[in-house]
Amino acid sequence: MTRWACLALLGLSALSPGAARADGLVADLSSHLIAITTGFTGASVVLFGAIEGPADVIAVVRGPERDVTIWRKDKIAGIWANAESVTFASMPSFYAVAASRPLPDVLSPASAALYRIGTGNLRFDPKSPTAPDRARLFADALVETQKRAGVFSAGHEKIAFLGDRLFRTTFSFPANVPTGNYLVEIFLVRDKDVVGGQTTPLVVSKVGVDAAVFDFARGNSLAYGAIAVVTAVMAGWLASLPFRNT
Amino acid sequence: MDVYLPVAEVSLDIFVLLGIGAAVGFLSGVFGVGGGFLLTPLLIFIGVPPTVAVASSANQLVGASVSGVLAHWRRGHVDFKMGFTLLMGGLAGSVLGVWLFTLFARLGQIELVISLCYVVLLGVLGTMMGIESARAILRRRQPGAARRKLHRHTWMHGLPLKTRFRKSQLYISALLPIGLGFVVGMLSAVMGIGGGFLMVPAMIYTLGMPTSMVPGTSLLQIIFVAANVTMLQAYTSHTVDAVLALLLLVGGVIGAQFGTRFGTRLRGEQLRFLLAVLVLAVAAKLARDLTLHPADLFVIPTDTRG
To answer: Which terminus of chain B is more exposed, N or C, with fewer CB under 10 A?
Structure first.
């Protein structure tokens, strides 16, 4: 992965999970696990840390990568139908950015592109040959659609400084947050250039009954279907019992 | 209070789900149909992905139909021979339906297909039922008007494989119920409905079954078709949310009992006219959504959103 190569080149290889340290930067998350339980309605994770000397901080949260198909609707015989689609390979399923100041003020466009910071700098790679302007159109629409779904951050979160050294920000995850292994990248920025950074993992996972149901539905789908049917039959039978004599 | 649905992957208010179950159950109790044609659009409306709504409605339907059949069976209003003949066609139809469902899902057109099926079927059926019940109401006001002929001989009575259905007092070709079962089974797989609202009029007007035998017999075969659809959807598209189905069932069973009691106070043709109005309203709403300029020209189907 090119992202890893970039970080490695700068001598910033990913360190152990949890708290990690790079040149003048220490940061960690309030939790490395977002547990989706039966009552799950979304979650927040606090990113906090400290830097040495004056600098800016940018943080990026990326969800697990997946192929995403986006459709464009067109009016066919008076009805709006999905007319054409583009499938982009390996898109992050979740993407959020936080920065201590507005992004253009903090980072040069070249650095933003190199480190893929900001939704405009994501790598859009159509799976089948697509004309560049068409790919651009669908890529922009993909970002907009994901923003509306709440899985791409609309603008960017503010990273607040407490004094000169301590910083913190909060990332919010909606109820429809994709599950999987996330990566949180924290960049130390001086003079519009990245001078240090670190990564830390974040796992979004279903736990308890929901995880059991979901895994069962995927892994053992025939048995799951059978149990779903039997449960419904039992429920229907039980429900009719109190009304037997009426 | 929100509850996270593990397969649908959305959080929804548990009381909204119970309420929808109860409302649909109430209507199905009043009108004697499964109510799936209202349940699936309602679930889609509150944010359940359409594919999950269709498959989970089928699962809910299994329970609701068992409950209904037991009630009719105690009164002796189930024709088992007719039910199983319908079922033979129904099982074959639902296999084809689930295959079509997965095909359209892969082509990215399943949501359009579901909506179109609803608009066409509900529109045609609502119009037919509305005209028929309005005539019946008018006829009641003019007692001297001519009555419909009891038996008309058509091409359907010339088909081979004539079979006697003692309970329904019919001697017709077995191909008729098999064909009817096939069409309804296919639609139930694509639309997540039991097909009661199609099956009931077809059994009365096409097969000529006595009205008292129709709901119980229709529900009997729906149990098996819906169970088959649930199994196939669970196996091929992984879209059955058993938690969602169970919540809907709890609300539905309670609602159905109240609905049945309310239904006995209304006259048949008035009931059918009300149902026709309801069916047309749902069809109009869906048709409007299809032809209105969409707010978002671009969509990412939920199964690829991740």
So the answer is: N
What local confidence, expressed as pLDDT, does residue A45 receive? Answer: 92
The larger pLDDT score, comparing residue A31 to residue A210, is at: A31
Averaged pLDDT score across all residues of chain A? 82
Closest-approach residue (CA) in chain A for B4? A38
The minimum CA-CA distance between A62 and chain B, rounded to whole Å, is: 13
Q: Which of residues 48-77 of A touch B (CB under 8 A)?
A: 63-64, 66-73
B245 touches chain A (CB under 8 A): yes
**Å between A137 CA and nearest CA of chain B:** 10
Which among A36, A238, A55 has a CA at the least distance from the CA of A159? A55
pTM here is 0.70
- Work out the angle between the directed axes of helices B50-74 and B175-191 (0-180°, nearest 10): 140
Interface ipTM above 0.90: no
Burial class from Cβ neighbours inside 10 Å (0-12, 13-18, 19+) for residue B58 reads: buried
Q: Which residue segment(s) compose the domain that B44 sits in?
A: 2-143+151-305
d(CA B53, CA B41): 8
If contacts are CB pairs under 8 Å, which of residues 182-211 in chain A contact chain B? 206, 209-211
3-state secondary structure of A28: strand
Architecture of domain A2-206: Sandwich (2.60)
Alpha carbon separation from B222 to B54, B89, B165, B186 (Å, rounded): 15, 12, 19, 12
Chain B residues within an 8 Å CB radius of A180: 306
CA distance B45 to chain A (A): 16
Q: What are phi and psi of A63, to 5 degrees?
A: -85, 170
Q: Is the pLDDT of residue B61 over 50?
A: yes
pLDDT digits (tens, 9 = 90+) for A38-91: 778 888 999 999 998 888 899 999 999 988 888 888 887 777 888 888 888 888
